[in-house]
Write a structure and sequence with these properties.
Length: 180
């Protein structure tokens, strides 16, 4: 992360809030040292998101930042046993988010082949999760690919989720008063 910090200091001070980015990197490093690499990946993604939002000549640095967040998200926290690695590969929302951001950045840079590969990796990272994560995955694909078919799939998943909630609330003791 020291290399990322040095690269951020080369950006013009009026272009981006470098102090905030350094604070995020500091939090990421602190979490990494404490063995909370998933939390560290989230902090690094915040740095990458700010760089991605800036755009232009900050995009290569954003790509590098998201690559580092992917690296962090693939690791297990210190308190997790080794056999959890298999579980982590298919149910990793941080990895899915990191790959999605990496794909979006590469797409903005015109690297469409790499972007598509990373979108697929993002989908694979959350494929075994519940319907909400499936909906998020389909929404990301619909947004980034601007694909009508994916948008229809997203709408269908959200309808199923909505119906499941309504079916569950029709029992003897319906809880909640928030409209969908």
């Amino acid at each position: 992360m020291e290399g990322l910090a040095q690269a951020i200091t080369t950006l013009p001070p009026d272009a981006i809030d470098r102090q905030r980015l350094m604070e995020c990197l500091g939090n990421a490093e602190k979490n990494r040292r404490n063995g909370k690499v998933k939390e560290a990946a989230k902090w690094v993604m915040q740095v990458g998101a700010a760089l991605h939002k800036k755009g232009g000549d900050a995009l290569p640095l954003a790509e590098r930042t998201f690559q580092h967040s992917v690296f962090l998200a693939k690791q297990l926290d210190n308190d997790a046993p080794d056999y959890m690695q298999i579980e982590c590969e298919g149910n990793n929302s941080e990895l899915g988010d990191a790959y999605t951001w990496l794909g979006a950045t590469e797409s903005a840079m015109g690297k469409n082949v790499e972007a598509e590969t990373h979108y697929k990796a993002a989908a694979k990272a959350v494929e075994d999760r519940s319907v909400v994560e499936l909906g998020d995955k389909l929404l990301h694909q619909a947004i980034f690919f601007r694909n009508r078919k994916m948008n229809d799939k997203y709408d269908a998943v959200m309808k199923r989720w909505e119906n499941a909630i309504r079916d569950a609330s029709c029992g003897e003791c319906p809880e909640g008063d928030v409209a969908l």
